[in-house]
Amino acid sequence: xxxxxxxxKPKSKRILELDALRAISCLxxxxxxxxYVYANKYGFxxxxxxxxxxxxxxxxxxxxxxxxxxxxxxxxKRSAKDFLFARAIRIFPSYWFVILxxxxxxxxxxxxxxxxxxxxVANLTTMPRLFGFENLEPVTWTLQIEMLFxxxxxxxxxxxxxxxxxxxxxxxxxxxxxxxxxxxxxxxVYPDSGANQFFWVVENVCYMRNMxxxxxxxxxxxxxNKRGTTWHNVIGIIVAGIVFQVIDLRDHNPAATMLLFGLxxxxxxxxxxxxxFKPLLFISSISYTLYLFHNNIxxxxxxxxxxxxxxxxxxxVLVTVLTxxxxxxxxxxxxxxITKFLRRWWKQRNEESITxxxxxxxxxxxx
Length: 367
Fold this sequence. Notes:
The protein is mostly helical. Helix content is 71%, strand content 0%.
């Protein structure tokens, strides 16, 4: 046996607790939509017996987690071009597949309306609300915010704003506070003014109501990687948290915000071993497709099973299993092969550009 074979494998630097948080956030949304939202939007044939109305906290956790993870991935490690390509191949193939599937669902199945061409085209951008349309798959409103956050990261990288992370994030959080308070105040005094549309567009393009959550995650990453003065970053996190609560329109409980951020912090330092539970890590691996697929398809299946006479609780359980299976199949047989192919293509393309005779790297130093 070779000496190399006896060498222990290098320990992965991946923080499994963060993957588990992604799974928890996704399962939170699934339970929210299959109980509380379904009951209020469509109505069960007979009472389900319980509801889980806490979906907004799954979104809140996800945005803080996204701020931390993407800052960890981006700062000092990737070019803007590589970052955008990695995000694009992760997001668009499965997203476009789900949108096209929803065109069929909305056209031929109960509960929904037939989408127009304009709706479909706007939805393919991931940002239909900015074009005046609703999301064909309602849960994907968060994806619009994620995409705008990625754009913010690229702008910060290109402009060098990462060098003064705390200062620049505090400026952004301050702008969110002033603008949102001004917009809310103006709307209360002049509810019929056309200027409210301007405020709405700016507020949504800059995702101002949620930006402080991303800032909290990004500043936690600064502390984790010992960049800047720790207590300064702690104060920045507190300020961002307070601003979020002040401008929030969805009545998030401040105690819940603190608890969720505390959980994120503990997970970032790998201090929650129970979350390394393998089923949670598996759900994390399929969380994106599960997030995309569960709502419209799940609601249709619950409705169909109830019409067939199945008890609502059993219908919810069976559809939960079904959507997890669908998310798994889509991840393994659609998302992963496409992602691997595009990554190989991108890597080969970059290697060819480096070794090309026209590349500056090959130019003679005497020229």
